[in-house]
Amino acid sequence: MQRAANSDFMQTARWNLPAEIGAEARDGGLAKFWRERAWIIDLDEWRARHDAYPGLELPSWLTDEPRCWLVVPLLVREALIGFVVLGRPRAMVELNWEVRDLLRTAASQASGYLDQAQATEALLEARKFDAFNRMSAFVVHDLKNIVTQLSLMMKNAKRLRDNPEFQQDMLDTVENSLEKMRQLMLQLRDGDKPHGVTSGVDLEQIAKRLAAAASSKGRALELTLQAGVSTRGHAERVERVLGHVVQNAFDATPASGRVCLTLDAQGSQARVRVEDTGCGMSEDFIQNRLFKPFQTTKSSGMGIGAHESYQYVQELGGKISVQSELNRGTTVTLLLPLFHAQADSPLAALDVQ
């Protein structure tokens, strides 16, 4: 028997003995006895002479079964983690000191293995919670961005609600926000496992969508794009990374400043460079805080976006570098693995018709 989730001892395995659906309380007679004496209990001896085991009261499920012979405690550093009930052997065995020592040695080894297994299980559970908490922080960060977008839309709705173009844009924004929240819920449920199939991601189209989104907010994202540049990854996550970099550039740059995005291919990598003329960052912040979680220069920021972007670019085998000067601006360069459709798919030529 081992301790169950409710801290009582329940049967976890058996062989040639009946199933026992009951439980033995951790503060029951057996546990109390073993806290004082780590003895192997000979049930025949207990039945014949109770005084051989002072103060020991045994449960009926154990004493009423004639096939039960010995009860061996499993102790780890004097803590009881379980016990073993041995059935009566087919051949007579004299329970002398050698047999008892052998049983104690076997019980000590079994206890060590069980303790290690429980520790490993607890560590895995802790890691799962850690991964869930980390993913929750990413999800909350993305939800904050969605809330900001919807709040801006509602603010504009007071003066533009009768404008047909705004009405259509509002419906598109709500639909897009709903889809993003669905994806976030899937991400939270499945943890770090990405959704969809890893494939080519058209960086040119992402850049154009980011420019259109900026334009709808009254900002201009200047584009210099090389056609046909794609990277390998998951489209939504790649777009979220680039969107975070661009949004940070706008946040750091006044309306009179400039934010530019340049896309080209450099050897076997796709290069995305986002430049702004904003407030910039200190070298100390870039080196020691920028890509660490919960570090931010924004009063309303969470310090998650840069960390998440850095982690995903690393997963793709890419790299992020930052150059910045206070009051002069910042340049963020992302190098991502270049995706070659014809090389990765021999059937790609069939799509030209």
Tally the beta strands.
13
User: What helical percentage do the residues reach?
Assistant: 40-55%
Tell me the name of the CATH homologous superfamily of the domain at 196-346: Histidine kinase-like ATPase, C-terminal domain
Major sheet strand order: 8-10-11-13-12
Structural class designation? alpha+beta
Beta-strand residue percentage: 15-25%
Q: How would the global form be characterised?
A: elongated
Q: What is the CATH T-level topology of the domain at 196-346?
A: Heat Shock Protein 90
Give the C-level CATH assignment of the domain at 196-346: Alpha Beta
Largest sheet, in brief, is: 5 strands, mixed
Rg, Cα atoms, Å: 33 Å
Kindly, what is the distance between the CA atoms of the first and last residues, rounded to a whole number of angstroms? 69 Å
Number of helices: 10
What is the residue-averaged pLDDT? 80
Instruction: Enumerate the spans where pLDDT stays under 50 for 5 or more consecutive residues.
Output: 193-197, 342-353
SSE string, helix = H, strand = E? EEEHEHHEEHHEHEEHEEHHEEH
* CATH A-level architecture of the domain at 196-346: 2-Layer Sandwich
Would you spell out the secondary-structure blueprint of this structure?
Elements lengths: L1 E2 L5 E2 L12 E2 L4 H8 L4 E2 H6 L11 H4 L4 E9 L2 E9 L9 H64 L3 H27 L8 E4 H14 L4 E5 L4 E4 L1 H18 L6 E8 L2 E8 L6 H6 L16 H11 L3 E7 L3 E9 L3 H4 L9
Parallel strand pairs: 8-10
Antiparallel strand pairs: 1-2, 2-3, 4-5, 5-6, 7-9, 10-11, 11-13, 12-13
Helix pairs in contact: 4-5, 6-7, 7-9
